[in-house]
Amino acid sequence: MTLAIFLFIAIIIAAIQTTIPFLVNRSIIFGVTIPEQHLQNKTLLSYKKKYSLMVGGVSAILLGGYALWALLQPVTQEQIVIIGTILEFTIILFSFSLYFYFHGKALRLKRDKQWLENIKSIKIADLSARAKDEMLPWPVYLLPMVITIGVMVYTFLQYDLLPQQIPTHWGINGEADAFTDKTFMSVLTLPLTLFMMQIMFLGIHLGTKKSGIKLSAESTVMSRQRQLSLRKYSSWLMFFVSFLLSMMLSFFQLQTIHPDLVSSTAMFLIPLGFLFLVLMGTIVFAVKVGFSDKNHSPQIEEKIMDANEDSYWKGGLFYFNKNDPSIFVEKRFGVGWTINFANPLGYLIVLVPLIVILLFSFL
Predict the structure, then answer these.
(1) Are 109 and 125 contained in the same domain?
(2) Which of 57, 84, 117 finishes a domain?
(3) Both 158 and 261 in a single domain?
(4) Helix (H, G, I), strand (E, B), or coil: what is residue 166?
(5) How far apart are CA 235 and CA 163, in angstroms?
(6) Phi, psi of 163 (to 5 degrees)
(7) What is the pLDDT of residues 40-79, one digit of tens each?
(8) Domain check: are 125 and 142 in the same one?
(9) Taking the complete model, does pTM exceed 0.90, yes or no?
């Protein structure tokens, strides 16, 4: 079962990394802004194909080798977990190494071909786009918080029933494998950690909702559709993950209070169900957003292009723009959002909850 879990996760990671060049914003190739009239350049298309073939091929070899090693050798569960984790990170690191390689080649091609010569860079705004925004209203993110507060109150009321050793970590078999002494802080660490994560999800949602809707001057209809799809489905995915996480960790807390609540088998299957649902939700999100701007015919203007923001993107991955009030912007490589690292609010939303969670863990 452990082998199947890690193979499943690794296959999903490999599939996403392999298809990323075909899921990102159509006018961005390996983190580089490309004028609409050059998107079908044969060299650029070959870069995308080579990247996908290399990532897919190497991933298949690694996955096959991992499966054969685990099936044909007398290995322990711990070894399967360690090697499986290394395998997943290897696929990710290899894909990012290839990304940086093709990012540099795309930049050089754009410069050598002088695609920006005699082209006017402009920005476009559509005041009506906000009216079509279908992001979830922020109060729905309070539902998981209410559940967590209820669990904390119940934990406090049942303090005497709790064991003297409080579980702090659960192994892949669903059984607790690390403990700490019972104190008011230790019994509430899990729900407090969950509560801070829920605050972070809410902050990301609010920051995303306030961020600008960036439209393409060359293909306004398609870019509007992508931006609205990204905003809508990312809000649903974050709420989905937040709700599932709340259910799972709340259940773990109740299991600590009532050790005989469910069997060890159920404790093993619940995290698997959570993982499966999150991965499926992520795939649906990536497909919905990734193909949202691929079904319309572009309106190509030969003498204009989108404002060239390549200088604000470090390596095509990290966005630094003090003139942009947006807290979050669409990724250039991958599907989803990234922080505007020049906006301090982004650090506040993401880092403060993480620091508090670490303090809970150590205290």
Answers:
(1) no
(2) 117
(3) yes
(4) strand
(5) 39
(6) -70, 165
(7) 889 999 999 999 999 999 999 999 999 998 888 888 877 8
(8) yes
(9) no
